[in-house]
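Hi team,

As requested, here is the filled-out complex form for the 1,6-di-O-phosphono-alpha-D-glucopyranose run. I kept the field names the same as last time so the parser does not choke. Let me know if anything looks off before we queue the next batch.

— J.
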Amino acid sequence: MSIQTVPTTPFAGQRPGTSGLRKKVTEFQQPGYLENFVEAIFLTLGDPGEGEGRTIVVGGDGRYFNRDAIQTILRMAAAHGVARVLVGRGGILSTPAVSCTIRKHAAFGGIVLSASHNPGGPTGDFGIKYNIENGGPAPEKITDAMFAHTQALTSYRISDAGPVDLDQVGKTRIENMVVEIIDPVADYAELMARLFDFKAIEALFAGGFRMRFDAMHAVSGPYAKTILEGMLGAPAGTVVNCEPLEDFGGGHPDPNPVNAAELIAHMEGLDAPDFGAASDGDGDRNMIVGRGIAVTPSDSLAIIAANATVAPGYKGGIKGIARSMPTSQAADRVAAALGISCFETPTGWKYFGNLMDANLVTLCGEESYGTGSHHIREKDGLWAVLFWLNLLAVRGQSVEQVVRGHWARFGRNYYSRHDYEAVDAAAADAMMTALRERLPELAGQSFGHYRVALADDFVYTDPVDHSVATRQGIRIAMVDGSRIVLRLSGTGTEGATVRLYLERFEADPARHDIDTQVALSDLVAIAGNISGLRHHTGRESPTVIT
Ligand code: G16
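And here is what came back:
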């Protein structure tokens, strides 16, 4: 075994997006492509100090190329003076489990291999992101430094050691570095058992409560099976599609009513169980479904916040809430009622890290099916599902009763997101530029019965480190609190994805039964008119509505 220095040249476009570097598998398979990005990670981290004994955590969602990438990363970590690497057995670690493991073992950081909810397989997507010692995604100043390194590389360092057996728990070595293959579920399951009332949930299942958890052939399967069926006594078969597959069974592991249509249909059937849930490729997203009712992620955040004290881990109350800017303002209403702060951040879980580290917030959530708390520094799909189980067990109510009760108390924020995928990137940019130019003239204008109160391009100043993020999405807020938000996704791998977010508040319970798309139709028309979306993109209708 020896460490080699291999000459290389930069690849264009290795700039991490909303959540790490995401590209087609075929792009990652180019010789040197992965190595270059990993070299940039290690150059950004700098060499460990003498006797530092740096530990990192490595794992992924099991998608195609996961195992190959891990072998390369291990050989490069050894060449960069890492003392110990913790790797999930089979190369498996969900994103929340990586965060949990980094924190529990006081690791220096972690590398997560996933393109989240994007499809997998040889023609699908792959991704890599770096998490820092608090367990959360690297902030922008670190990802910017990584990108700068990718553009200036002339070589990378790698050990020529052979492959490590990823499937046996135990220790081995590459050069001077210890590789420890760990049970991917144990640390995470132990944390969940401390946060939630497992006895109450066990009693719920023992009483005949039925649930279906759709792991979508992705990484949550082993976690959900161990915790729900193994520790909480849910009947065998509660967790479906529980084997992580390299191509997610050909599906799109995105837990929303469109991509988890099978679960939605099941929950609308005559023999629907009491509770349904799904999680995504890397286990950080969640969808909550009751019999005949899908809970929007924005409502789920608000409901968890309003009921946080039912779970033992939050019985002392919550400090504050943070939501991404496009997420509905339902959580703001809860925060106001509780007399706590509600922070509005740009899209991207990385913006929540400082708020949680500074103990300003306990709960965070995003419209993109992400909810979580300060127990780790990533969003956490199974955590949200366990919270809901804890809530249903304590309240003895159905999902629908909980949701309707919440609307009756706080009002309903009708909410929807319209995605226009794989749009020509130049056309999408032109639309955003033209819209930005129109912003100053919009405030005060009326469109039908809506009047614009504020129109801007969202700028966020982090209250902790005072870093500033500009151009984070266009907000058009109406006088009555309704909103139109437009931004370009930072996670797509084909052209541009235009996201149009729509929100309307309705206080009157007598009007809480309108179909969501009908309730928002006026705002859709106004958004189309103001943005010229159809004109610029040539698209008549969205690709996906959630
Ligand atoms: C990632 C980020 C989330 C973000 C989502 C959508 O989620 O971690 O914070 O809300 O992408 O981002 P965009 O609208 O830019 O596509 P995940 O689950 O893909 O890691």
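Two things worth flagging: The first helix runs from residue 25 to 28. The chain is about 35% helix and 25% strand.

Thanks,
J.
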